[in-house]
Design brief:
421 residues; mainly alpha; Growth Hormone, Chain: A; 82% helix
Length: 421
């Protein structure tokens, strides 16, 4: 593609951007397949009682997705975004069939290894491609739309599988949807999505005409994003804790709801409320971060998540559980697209995709850390203690972000300077 013909911006690339939003909806729907019913399958079909064992599927999902995120960033720079995206869908093909017919729990865990690899390749690449397309002005909105599509689809898929399980049984019928998701995602990615690396070249030419690109090694990018850059490392720890509490919610909340007497259909609704509000609200919060800045949306979002988890810990009926899920969803919506937009603000375009990969490595390790921490704590001290521990860690993460981060968006910096004495 001739880079002279390329333009950056959401409106300028609306067709491809919209297509990538749709593709990411199918990516999210694959996770939603498991969201409301897999813990029930573990207990009812495979007779697994230990919380740590039940949450093992989240542990392997988190670890494989995290590691794949890291390599997805590197591979997308080296081989192209589209090739990585298509590869991710190819890996997903066996997943719904294994979940339908798994003869024991180890097969389910194995399916989640494949699901984690697929999610790491596909979701990371759609994020990187949208950042490529829109340029610096609308990154928050772009990430809000991307995460809205993914997590609203998680919610819709969780609701659909919960309803299907309530009417037809836990297996195999709920997983028929997964075959549709994989087929649609693969065909759209292979036939309609276009490569976006030329947009990065154009951005470098237009936005940084006199700048010399940082020639950073992968080791240095990893150090900056993980430890030495105060903004990037603050984003990485907040992402890890965000998914730590999501891993706990994914694994323990359905068991909490069942223990409180909720029906399978009610559990499906409750499992859908959190990602539905999370997904839908990100359109607003992503755009809001472009107007008011990133830092305080991240800080207050972490604190609101902690409040939602605390409400769930003390709840005993459907309405209060729903309130806790709603607060958790709003808080997560404040954080999720804003963290990704912050990476785009700070990282140079020449190593931005790799920085996104490192961030998403840490963020999705949170699934594994959260599932292990919640499972071990629940087995040793009870489920309520596990939930309160995760709430406290989420609150602390917001404190760390408040203390270490500076504002990274131009509008937010200007507002901070005007407010300074």
């Amino acid at each position: 593609m001739n880079t002279a013909q390329i333009r950056l911006g959401l409106r300028e690339n609306l067709g491809q951007f919209s297509l990538l939003v749709l593709v990411n909806a199918f990516v999210g729907a694959m996770v939603g397949l498991e969201r409301s019913i897999l813990p029930a399958i573990a207990e009812q079909e495979f007779h697994i009682a230990a919380r740590t064992s039940i949450l093992s599927f989240i542990v392997v999902f988190g670890i494989t997705k995290a590691l794949t995120n890291y390599f997805a960033g590197r591979f997308s720079d080296r081989f192209g975004r589209k090739r990585v995206l298509v590869a991710g869908w190819l890996v997903a093909i066996p997943v719904p069939f294994i979940l339908m017919w798994a003869p024991n729990w180890n097969w389910v865990v194995g399916a989640n290894v494949l699901l984690g690899v697929s999610q790491g390749l596909t979701w990371s690449t759609t994020v990187i491609m949208k950042i490529d397309l829109v340029g610096p002005k609308q990154r928050g909105l772009a990430m809000g739309l991307n995460e809205f599509a993914g997590y609203f689809a998680v919610a819709a898929s969780a609701l659909a599988t919960g309803w299907t399980a309530a009417h037809f049984g836990l297996r195999p019928e709920p997983f028929y949807l997964g075959v549709v998701y994989v087929a649609a995602g693969l065909l759209l990615s292979a036939l309609a999505v276009r490569e976006t690396r030329d947009h990065v070249v154009h951005e470098l030419r237009e936005q940084h005409p006199q700048a010399v690109a940082d020639k950073l090694s992968q080791a240095e990018i990893f150090r900056r994003t993980s430890l030495t850059d105060r903004n990037l490392s603050s984003v990485s720890q907040a992402g890890l804790v965000n998914n730590l509490n999501d891993g706990m919610a994914w694994g323990l909340f359905p068991l909490v709801f069942a223990a409180a007497g909720m029906t399978l259909a009610q559990i499906g609704v409750l499992a859908a409320i959190y990602p539905a509000i999370w997904g839908a609200s990100q359109i607003l919060t992503g755009a809001l971060s472009d107007k008011i800045g990133r830092k305080w949306l991240i800080v207050w979002g972490m604190w609101l998540q902690a409040g939602g988890i605390a409400v769930t810990a003390v709840a005993a009926d459907f309405r209060v559980f729903g309130l806790g899920a709603a607060l958790l969803g709003i808080g997560t919506a404040m954080v999720y697209p804003t963290l990704l937009a912050t990476i785009g603000d700070v990282a140079h375009p020449s190593w931005r995709a790799s920085a996104v990969g490192v961030y998403r490595l840490w963020r999705d390790l949170g699934y594994a850390v959260g599932a292990l921490l919640a499972g071990i704590t629940a087995d040793m001290f009870g489920v309520p203690t596990a939930i309160w521990l995760v709430a406290a860690l989420t609150l602390l993460s917001g404190v760390v972000a408040a203390a270490r981060m500076s504002e990274t968006h131009a509008t937010g910096k200007a507002r901070a300077q005007r407010a300074a004495p």
